[in-house]
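Exercise 7.
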Amino acid sequence: MANYGTSQSTTGQVSNVVVNNPIVEVDLQATSNDKFYFLNSPDEQYVGPYHRHEDGTLMIGAGVLGVNHELKPDEIIFEEISDENVLQTRERVSDIFYKLWFQSNTLSEQEILSMQTTIRDGIKQTGRNEDEPLVFYKKDRNTLESRKDLQGETFEKICQYIFDNSIIDLDDLFVIEQIDGVPQNNQNVIDYQIIFSHGNVQYKINIAKKVGNVFTDVLNLGQLTKIKNSTRINPEKASEILDTNIFELLPNQSTRQDTINRFFRDFNDLIGPKPAFQDVDGDGVGESAVNYEQDEQSRISYDNRPSAYITRTNEQAASDTNNQGKTIESMRNKLNTYLGDVDNVIETLEDDRPEYENVSQGFLKIRKPNQAIILKSPNNRELEFQKINPNNGKPSFLEDGFTVTMWVKFLSKTSEGTLFNFGNPLNTNQQNSPNDYGFRLDTKVNEYDGKYYRYIRLVVRDWGPFQNGKRFYRLRDNHFGTQGLNRFDHRSFGSNVTNYPEVHRAFPQISTDNLDEWYFICATFNPNISESDYDSSSPWRQNSQYWLNHIAPNGNIVSNSGVGAKCKVELISRTQLLNARGYKVRSLTATSKLEIDLQSSFTYQIIEEDGTPPIVQPPVANFEFEIMG
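Solution. The predicted structure, written as tokens, is:
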């Protein structure tokens, strides 16, 4: 039944009495784009499943086919129909014309044939014989006669007026009248008019004329046909093929796919809009619902309304026993147990970094004891960094400082020895002597708890106090305080070494596990650093960053605090350096370079030992290592 009004099309008044009014359509779906509203609350739109009864009543819920149940007014919905364009209005007005005509007249079979459309001689024509084909049109107003009847000026004015004024209910605005006309050939003439009235507006359209018992100029009925009984089927032969014993009538059965489709359709309608999330901790992921209260109030646990959505979180259903375990959160937790093979997939990411290509074409190996690089100035003159300041008698390397850098690869876990040596800094004589000054960079190995630990040490013989007319010297090294180990003046001799079996933890370490790795070592002596001893109550005695010159006296972290240890050694592996530069490191058979920067220029050459005591003492090497140049 067509329903063009804002009220539900039902048979009689709505009643709570269960009558013979079974459900004839089930699993219908009202979306947000449709215009379904509650009969008792016309402003509240309904979205969800609904069903249709035999009398046309629409009710919420999927329904069960063939069932009679009470028509509850609060569950009855209707579809509001309005025209989106004037073409829809024309179609509705055309339906009214046909409806009024059929209610007023009964046509004979010959009259129907005279108004139908057929194809004759290759063209469409009005009026057909019984044996000619019948042409059907998608719309009544598109038939040959309707295009003449329903495209006149008056018809268009009626349609435009209805569309402009958004008139929905048309049934009471049209009537059909019969008017006696002038007799023709001694036969009575009746004119048929359809009259449209709305307020002070009225239009009239002549739709047919009847002369005697024959209609002329009638509104086209080309879409109609009359059912005729036929005897073309032989019942005896049909019974041989067809089973005429019907035991049960079953409605159309839905398939499993139909059930699954309906589930997802219902789920999408019931899940509701997702909340807007705000990133409160700056990690790039939203974790706080901005519209939490609005979202909570739209859920079924807050208010059992027809338009309510599934409860989103378990917290929102805490006080609602009907929906505990029926939340989106509980559904998510259950789905996680089904998707272990999807959520726990380990993907291997391809390393697309470029491989580093070595630049140097060779390297210098120092493998045997007493092999060394000897630095010597021309004509046995002093090197720049050992020259004495005439104003205070202090050597240049103590006054200006120095930096020694080199690439080193260690070939065993236990070997120890000197990496760079100048003078004799490890002389235990505390008084002024030609042999008790200089600096030394070496490597030490400490065995602790069944494992070997290699560490790098820089030792410098610095000036100490002047007492009793004699200059005393002070030994400095690069050890730092760390957790459980206090900072002393040095840890290169005496009880500071022997009493602490974990002494390696106070120095920068190099792993003994990978003997194929190269390491870049940077050893620095900075006389401008303020180095002082601290009592046992000082917070800095076990703080390594303080002694590495990165913590100011006020506790702030800086690049160079000006306080801490004057001696400092920093190192990085070749792999770490190349990775930091974005390279993929392959086999570590590589070249490296020895660089000595003493903050002063000097000339050096590699010479064989000729028996002449060199100014720079050669290193005493009792282990194998490689220095690449």
